[in-house]
Amino acid sequence: MSHFLDITKDVCPITFVKVKVKLARMKAGERVEVLLSDGEPLRNVPRSAQEQGHKVIAVQPDGQHYRVTIEK
Fold it and tell me: What is the pTM of this model?
């Protein structure tokens, strides 16, 4: 099962807090696609996810934003 989370209207540190809560509700092996803004969220969310033991599968531009795929 895959999940989706749009955090484009949020700022750090709330961006990763929302991603962390989403990941906590998921099962091992599930993936979440996170739509986020350039700048601090793009730098911090993938790094923080990896530090928490999750796998960053992809970081891709998506229009004005970026789409980050994370596997729990």
Answer: 0.93
